[in-house]
């Protein structure tokens, strides 16, 4: 555990976290629907890294307690496989996930722009942050859908009337990369505004990160 915490402190966590995040997003989550054990492991991984990440940066005690509280709540919901057919529990779980990923993204961005981080670690952290942005918006879209199912329209390729979470992961990354296949379309002002915001971030974040890395490398020389 101590070596893992020191890895966080030295920003060497980025290649490890990025590898696991890619595996989770593109190999595990697509096949984890109705598999509470897998979902529980994913939640434990993200929650544990959130707590360690928050403790590796200088932040307020309140933020640290919030991170621990959210990690316990979401891990309990996922591991115990709480009956999420109850709409209120779905909303609580999604909101907790949004807060967890927001805090984790906050930690990563601080680590990426630290002056004592190596360039390779910053690049890896930037990629991981970009993936976390897509995951964050996926939960936001899923929250909007659960509050108002008519916020999105779906073409005939989605045979089920009940959308699963990974469908919104798919939509989020398509939107983040500004590809826009058109099989999922936001149709009300809230979902449209959030989609526009994500597309803008998807363009600006890599531009800002690359510009910062070039500027920092130039100043060091």
Structural features, described:
There is one protein chain. With 221 residues, the chain is an all-alpha fold. Helices cover 73% and strands 3% of the residues. It is built from eight helices and two strands. A two-stranded antiparallel ribbon has the order 1-2. Helix 3 runs antiparallel to helix 4. The model has no long low-confidence stretch (mean pLDDT 80).
Main features:
221 residues, mainly alpha, two-stranded antiparallel sheet
Largest sheet: 2 strands, antiparallel
Mean pLDDT value: 80
Q: Please give the share of residues in helix.
A: over 70%
Radius of gyration equals 18 Å
Tell me the number of helical segments per DSSP (H or I, 4 or more residues long).
8
Amount of beta strand = under 5%
In the sheet with the most strands, the strands line up as 1-2
Order of helices and strands: HHHHHHEHEH
Counting helices, strands and paired strands, the structural category is mainly alpha
What can be said about this structure in brief?
The chain has 221 residues and is mainly alpha-helical. The chain contains eight helices and two strands.
Give me the secondary-structure topology:
Blueprint: H1 2-9, H2 13-28, H3 36-55, H4 61-79, H5 87-112, H6 119-147, E1 152-154, H7 165-176, E2 184-186, H8 189-220
Antiparallel strand pairs: 1-2
């Amino acid at each position: 555990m101590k070596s893992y915490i020191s890895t966080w402190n030295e920003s060497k966590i980025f290649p490890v976290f990025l590898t696991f995040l890619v595996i989770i997003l593109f190999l595990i989550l697509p096949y984890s629907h109705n598999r509470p054990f897998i979902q529980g492991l994913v939640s434990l991984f993200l929650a544990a890294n959130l707590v360690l990440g928050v403790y590796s940066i200088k932040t307020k005690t309140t933020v640290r307690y919030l991170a621990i509280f959210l990690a316990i709540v979401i891990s309990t919901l996922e591991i115990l496989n709480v009956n999420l057919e109850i709409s209120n529990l779905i909303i609580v779980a999604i909101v907790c996930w949004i807060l967890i990923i927001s805090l984790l993204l906050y930690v990563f961005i601080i680590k990426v722009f630290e002056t004592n981080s190596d360039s390779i670690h910053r690049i890896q952290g930037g990629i991981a942050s970009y993936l976390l942005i897509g995951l964050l918006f996926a939960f936001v879209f899923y929250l909007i859908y659960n509050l108002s199912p008519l916020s999105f329209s779906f073409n005939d390729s989605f045979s089920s009337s009940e959308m699963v979470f990974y469908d919104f992961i798919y939509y989020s990354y398509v939107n983040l990369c500004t590809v826009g296949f058109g099989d999922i379309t936001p149709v009300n002002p809230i979902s449209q505004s959030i989609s526009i915001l994500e597309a803008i971030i998807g363009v600006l974040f890599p531009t800002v990160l690359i510009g910062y890395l070039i500027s920092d490398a130039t100043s060091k020389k």
